[in-house]
Amino acid sequence: MRRRHLTIQTTSILCLLLFAAIGSPAGANSKYTQTFSKAGGSGAQVAQDTSANVVEPQPATSAPLPSGNAMPLSGAIGGAAPSQTNAGPASTFTLYEDFEQDWTSYWTLDDTSSTDGGEYLWGQRTCYVYQGKFAAFSVGGGAKGSSRGCSSNYPVNAHSTAVFGPIDLSSYVNGNLVYHLTGKSEYNGVTASCTSADDTVFVGIGTNPDITTHYGYISCGDFSDKQYVNTLDLSKVPLNIFGPQGVYLSMQFDSDGDSNRGFGFAVDYLSLVLTKPDPAPETKIYVPMSRKYTAPAVKGCPDNEPNSVKTQGSVITQFGVACKGTLPPGDASDFYAVDVSANRKLIVDLNNFGKNDYDVYLYNANSDTPIAQSALNPGLPEHLEFTSSSSQRLYIWVVARDPYISPYSYYLTVQR
Hints:
The protein is mostly beta strands. The chain has two domains: 271 residues, Sandwich (Jelly Rolls), CATH 2.60.120; 117 residues, Jelly Rolls (Sandwich). 1% of the residues lie in helices and 35% in strands.
C-alpha cells in the first residue's frame, strides 16, 4: 500500500483551511495564504471554503527549545499520557518531535500513489532544518525518495502520509499544535485557499488514525525565503481532542499530475504545548529517601519460547502498562495466557510495530475459534475487548503476517 505527498511551488502560499473559518483576517498576500481545514483523501486534499479568513504565517525565531517540563514524542509510544512523566506542578507541558531520533520507526508512513514512479515517503533528512541536524522532508524517504536531492523537484501524483498515535491528552484542558515549515510547491495564485490545482502539505491532529478526519493547516506555494511557524489552537478543532480516546498527529503531502512543481516541504520541531487544569491546593507528603518511587521502564512481555500454541503461553501478570514482545524472523507468533474473573472486561492493545501487519486474537481453552479479534490494515494499532461471563483462563495470540520487516517487536497492553 502506498500514499501520496503534497509539496509547494512558485509564489509563497500557506493555506490553512477549516470548514469553520477561524483566525483574524490578515489580508491576501501575493506570496502565500493560510487557512484551516479538514484534510482530504487520496486525491487533492483541499476542503474548499472561499469565505475562510486569511491568516499570515509567523517568521520563526531562534529561541531556545523547551526543556525541563517537556518530553519527546517517542516517550508517548504505546499511548502513554504525557502527564505521567511530567516533572512538576507547572501549568503547561510540551510534548515534542524534533525529528533528531529515528522517528520513521515509530510513526506510521504510507505512500498510496501507484502513479508517482516509486515509493516516496516522509523522510529524516538534513534538508531545510530549523534546529538540530534533521527535519521531516516530504517525499524525501522510501526507496525512491531517499535518493532525492534537497532542491530537486518532487514527483507528480504523490500522496504520502505520516501518522503518530495514540497520545493520551485526557489530563489536559487546552493547548496548541506548533510546527516549523519551509519549502516550495505549485501555487496558482488563489489567495482564499489552496485549490485542487495546487500541490499541498497538511499538518494536523485527529482522534483516530484516519487522516481524512483530521483538522489542521493546508499549505501551498513558496515558503523558501525563511522558516515559518504555525500555531493551531486546539480549542478551535471540532473534535474531542482531550477525551479518553487519545489523539493522532499527522502530516500529508500531495501533488497533481502536471509539471508545475517545487522541491517540497520540510517540517521541523512539531510540538503539543498543553495546558493543565488549575491545580488543587498542594498537600506535601514527606517520604524517606529509601521509599521514593521510581517509575519502572517498559518491561519485556513474558515471551517465553516456545509459545506457538496456546497451551504454551506464559501467564501475563502486569496489567495497565505496555510490555515489549519480539517476533524475530521465522517466529511469527506469540501466545500469552491471562486469567479473568466473571463479568470482568478484558482489554487488549497491540501497537508500535512499524508498517508491519500484526493482528491480535483471543481464545478460550475449549475452542480454536477466536472469541474476539482485531485484524486491521498494516501499520494500524490493534484493539479488542471481551467481557467474560465466567472466571476462566483466556489466551492472547499475537501474529505477524508475512512479509514482515524490522522492527521485529511490538508493545502489548492488557487491562482487566
